[in-house]
Design a protein that fits this description.
single chain; 153 residues; alpha/beta; Rossmann fold; 4-stranded parallel β-sheet; 4 strands
Length: 153
């Protein structure tokens, strides 16, 4: 089995143009970090924590499957006229945090919480904010941190 990091990218497709930029940045960072990945898409940011849990659970149930070393979680929630933004962004981030701590996951969080679509585009664009790339780099860093606590074989 390879020692290269193996990551799961989970991207929310609610704002497809933003998700595409986030994913583009994440893949570039993962490849630059000499890692590999699998990608899964979900409808919105709210569904990201469930997909993480599905992945963790599947590794518990299926022996021999290569385990994910880390997770790159990408999506966007944009403020609207109701409190829906507050609820979705807070609950999604809280659930991701809970899973990260409960299962000792190496996570790079790239779920944008923005006031406008334009602000989200700037933060997601590879040639501007590149938050997808930053999330992948954070996941790779956390994989190294996690591995530093495991004694060599």
């Amino acid at each position: 089995m390879s020692d290269e990091p193996y990551l799961l990218i989970i991207d929310s497709r609610f704002y497809e143009d933003i998700a595409d930029e986030l994913v583009k940045g994440a893949i570039a960072a993962i490849e630059a970090g000499e890692a590999s990945y699998t990608r899964v898409s979900v409808p919105g940011a709210f569904e990201i924590p469930a997909a993480v849990r599905f992945a963790v659970r599947s590794m518990e149930l299926v022996g021999g499957r290569r385990r994910y070393d880390g997770y790159v979680l990408l999506g966007c929630v944009i403020r609207g006229e109701t409190d829906h933004y507050e609820r979705i962004s807070q609950e999604s981030i809280r659930a991701i945090s809970d899973l990260t701590v409960q299962y000792s996951l190496a996570v790079g969080l790239g779920v944008l919480t923005c006031d406008t679509h334009e602000q989200a585009i700037v933060r997601a664009a590879v040639n501007q904010g590149n938050k997808g790339g930053a999330a992948a780099e954070a996941a790779l860093h956390m994989i190294r941190v996690k591995r530093s606590f495991v004694p060599p074989r």
